[in-house]
Amino acid sequence: NAGVTQTPKFRVLKTGQSMTLLCAQDMNHEYMYWYRQDPGMGLRLIHYSVGEGTTAKGEVPDGYNVSRLKKQNFLLGLESAAPSQTSVYFCATNRGLFIGEQYFGPGTRLTVT
Amino acid sequence: QKEVEQDPGPLSVPEGAIVSLNCTYSNSAFQYFMWYRQYSRKGPELLMYTYSSGNKEDGRFTAQVDKSSKYISLFIRDSQPSDSATYLCAMRALIQGAQKLVFGQGTRLTINP
């Protein structure tokens, strides 16, 4: 089992460009999350999904959109990248019964110049 | 004021030392307390979680919760170089039927051989 995978691992964007980050899981988990991790800020929740076809805003949703068309995939989109979106992005999943037990992907390092 | 405060370190100790990592919190609604370990350029992984005040032991790791003081700790006995990582505390609350998870900023720990 691959667990949680993220594509791509690294990306450099210019300001104003768009991109989509893909998260895939093979654990059949209902809940999926997108976080960003910045120095001194810890993990901050961007958006999350409690099941196929559902999405909801987290703590820092501005500038991002998400979609969960299939249970195993959760996409994070940046329509017009800004330097403030330079960060490491993590996808996480859990079954939903207890959200403290989260399984994280390896992360995507994004730099916006 | 952040809901969860964690000293970012860095913390450097010799191999074999006892390590103490700490978090404080302000929201009395937090009920579950987690510790995650994150190796460099990897996603966080759950180490252990606790619910009640007191101690919970798992091998060389002991999680301690003091709800009256809103203070949690993670102790590592007989520390090993392989314990070198960033340790994040996380806390879960149930608010109006929805689960909320908040992470601390993380403490970077280095165990020197």
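qc> The two ends of chain B are 37 Å apart (CA to CA).
qc> done
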